[in-house]
Amino acid sequence: MRRVLIVGATSPLARYMAHGFAHRGDTLFLAARDTEELERVACDVRVRFGATVHTGRFDAAAIEEHEAFWQEVVRSLGGVDGVVWVAGTMEGLEEAFRQPQAVRRLIEVNLTGAASLLTLAACYFEEQGRGFIAGVSSVAGDRGRGQNYPYGAAKGGFSLFLQGLRNRLSKRGVQVTTIKPGFIDTRMTWGRDKLPFLASPQRVAKESVQAVLKGKDVAYVPAVWGLVMLVIRSIPERIFKKMSI
Ligand SMILES: NC(=O)c1ccc[n+]([C@@H]2O[C@H](COP(=O)([O-])OP(=O)(O)OC[C@H]3O[C@@H](n4cnc5c(N)ncnc54)[C@H](OP(=O)(O)O)[C@@H]3O)[C@@H](O)[C@H]2O)c1
Questions:
Q1: How many whole angstroms from 243 Cα to the centroid of ligand 1?
Q2: Residues with CB under 6 A from ligand 1
Q3: How far is CA 129 from each of CA 37, 69, 162, 215, rounded to the nearest angstrom?
Q4: Domains of the chain: which residue ranges?
Q5: ∠ at Cα 157 (152, 162), nearest 5°?
Q6: Which CATH number applies to 3-240?
């Protein structure tokens, strides 16, 4: 039995990841901003798996509250064995191409907030000499594209942050897994036509939990995205800048 914090637990992806951990007998702390929806998710997990599930409000952008939140998680769970960061947003992407406050907001939620909380988790696990951190980044962070670079830049920064954490913590018995999904069928992609390799949140969650359990460093989910991004990363910049993909 492990004690696992899941951040962004109202997202479909996190919800199915919660099932994956609860199914193995883990105790969970679910966090996000929408506390009513959180309670619904928690009830569902309790009923399905008989798991102990705590909930707490968490805002990635309210960095001044993160230390108190982390203490609350440690207290409620009686110690922490793993943290799964799923929270993310693409809200305000159009505005972020023109407005400083909008680009700041995207980076704050997707990168700064994640880095802030995971820094607290990293120090805790480092001292404990065990634990795991899994961060849901995105293939969007693998190469800057004109259509989404404010979001992609935050996710790319998050991937690098996780890579650095892994380099720091692997020597201390702490596992860090970077999860890079392609397109997932959630509200984030709602209304967008013909997205290639669009996967259900159930499938992405199942493969993400497997990646964590297997102790993977980086997992593209579904795996085909590893190949797709290998090709996309290898396109020379002088050609890539003229493409609209
Ligand atoms: N959908 C895709 O195609 C896709 C592709 C690659 C990667 N991803 C990544 O997968 C993760 C899950 O996304 P999703 O598609 O399931 O989207 P989603 O349904 O919009 O879920 C986003 C989650 O992030 C939380 N969140 C947003 N802003 C937050 C904030 N300021 N503080 C704390 N939590 C916040 C939301 O909870 P509250 O609103 O309750 O706070 C929600 O739980 C994200 O990191 C996303 O970037 C998605």
A1: 28
A2: 8, 10-14, 32-34, 37, 58-61, 86-89, 109, 136, 138, 181, 183-184, 186-189
A3: 34, 22, 18, 16
A4: 3-240
A5: 125
A6: 3.40.50.720
Q: List helix spans (H) across 100-242.
A: 100-107, 113-128, 149-169, 201-213, 224-234, 237-240
Pocket test for ligand 1, best of 38, 73, 184, 204 (most atoms within 8 A of CB): 184
Give 109's Cβ-side CA count (13 Å radius).
22
Main-chain phi, psi angles of 136, to 5 degrees:
-90, 105
Nearest to 135 by CA among 63, 183, 87, 202: 87
Please report, in tens digits, the pLDDT of each residue of the chain (245 residues total): 999 999 999 999 999 999 999 999 999 999 999 999 999 999 999 999 999 999 999 999 999 999 999 999 999 999 999 999 999 999 999 999 999 999 999 999 999 999 999 999 999 999 999 999 999 999 999 999 999 999 999 999 999 999 999 999 999 999 999 999 999 999 888 888 888 999 999 999 999 999 999 999 999 999 999 999 999 999 999 999 999 88
Give the Cβ contact number of residue 34 at 10 Å: 12
| Ligand 1: residue whose CA is nearest its atom 24 | 87
Structure pTM?
0.98
